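Continuing from the previous page...

OK, I double-checked the sequence for Dihydropyrimidinase against my notes and this is the correct one:
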Amino acid sequence: MYLLIKGGTVVSASGAQPADVLVEGERIAGLFAPEHTPAVEGAQVIDATAKYVIPGAVDVHTHMELPFGGTFASDTFESGTRAAAFGGTTTIIDFAVQRTGERVPDGLAAWHAKADGNCHVDYGFHMIMGGVDDESLKAMDSLVESEGVTSFKLFMAYPGVFYSDDGQILRAMQKARENGSVIMMHAENGIAIDVLIGQALSRGETEPIHHGLTRPAELEAEATRRAISLAEVAGDTPLYIVHLSASQALEAVAAARDTGRNVFAETCPQYLYLTLEDQLGAPGFEGAKWVCSTPLRSKAEPHRRDLWRGLRTNDLAVVSTDHCPFCFKEQKELGLGDFSKIPNGIGGVEHRVDLLYQGVVDGKLSLARWVETIATTPARMFGLYPRKGVLAPGSDADIVVYDPNARTTIGVATHHMNMDHSAYEGYQIAGKVDTVVSRGTVLVSGGEFHGRKGHGRYLRRGLSTYLL
Ligand SMILES: NC(=O)NCCC(=O)O
Ligand SMILES: [Zn+2]
Ligand SMILES: [Zn+2]
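Thanks. Re-ran it with the corrected sequence; updated C-alpha cells here:
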C-alpha cells in the first residue's frame, strides 16, 4: 500500500525544499525532488501544493487522566490522543506516576492499563518518581533496560505529593548517570512556596492570581540552579528542566550550557503567550482556568521575550504542552475560595503546532526551528529518533500537511479536548493542520477524523541521542 504526498515543501530541522514523500505501508520509502518522483501505480495521492509537509509533531509532556488535586485530568488517553492528532501531534510521551508509598512497577502497570488499546497516536512513558529509595532506584534500572522508559521526572515542588528532597534527587541523578537515562525536573522551591501560600491565605488572599504571586520567578530560578548543581555533583547527569517559564531560570540553564553541561530545557505555549495579569488575574474566579505550575509570569517583565530568544538560541530545545486539562465546572471549582486547591494544569495538546507556527509568522522562529522544537529535538532528546521526528527513508510515516494560507480560530466550540473552556479562546491562527498521517494511516483530513482507537502503539524508547 503506497501513499504519495505530492507538490509540497518539505520542512525539516535543517531547512525547507520542494519534495514529494513516498510512503510504503507504515514507513517512509523515500523523498524525491518533484521531477524525479517515480510513478507508483495504485498509490493514494495527497495533494500538498502550496503547503508544508513536516514530521508528525512529538509532544513529550502530557498528563492524560492524571490524578491531581483531588480529581483527574479530564482527557483520557482516547480523547487526548484524538485531540493531539487533530493538532498535528502523532506521538506523545505521557508521565506514568509512582505516588509516594507506591512501587514504581505498579505505577507503570497502571499507566499501561489506562493507555494500552486506547490511543490514536503512538505513545511512550516517562516515570514520575514520587519516592526515591533503594527499591525505586533499582526499579529505575529495570525500566531503562526492559520497559523502554528512559527518563524520570522528579519534583522540587508539591511537598507531600510528589516532592523529593535534595538527597533523594542526588541519589536518583547518580542512578541516572549509571544507566544513561535523563532526569526531568519540576524546578520550583516547593518548601518556600508552601510558606508563601500559607501566608497569603492567612491574609485572606484566595483568588487565582495568588497562585502565581506565591510562586515567584526567583523560586523557579533557585530550584533550577540547585538542580543544575546537583546534576553536576552526580557527574554531569543529563538534566532536562520541564515547563520553564521565567527569564531567571532560563539564565541559569544558558549559563550551564555555556560551560558545556548536559543541561536542557523545554518551555510550553502558555508561557510564550499568556500572562499572570491577563489570564491568571482575570476577574472573579475566571483566572482558575490558567492555574498551572510553574505559573504564568508577569507581563511587566521580559519573560516571554526571553523565552522566544531561548528557542532561537537552543537554550530552550523543546516546546511541549504540559497538557493537563481540568474542566472549569466542578474541577477548577474545587479551588473556589482557596487558590491552593485549584487543580494545576492547562490543556493544550491540540494547539502546540499552530501556536508555535505563529512564531514563524511573526518572524520569531525560522521554519526549520519550528519543526526542530516541536518534533525533531523532542524525538532525539527522548530516544525516539530517527523513528520519529524526521521525514527520512525508514522512519515511521508520521506526517503533517500544514496549510500556511488557511486560517483557524481556537475555541471550546471547535476543539477536541475534553475541556469546557479553552486556554486560548478566540486566538486567530494564521495556518492550519490540513492532513495528519500516523504510520501511513490518514488520521485527519478535511477536518474529519478517520482514526480508530488502538491504532496508537506503545513506544519502547532508547537512550537519548541528544546528549553531549
Ligand atoms: N504543570 C501543571 O500545572 N500540572 C501538571 C503537573 C506538572 O507538570 O507539574
Ligand atoms: Zn511539573
Ligand atoms: Zn507536567
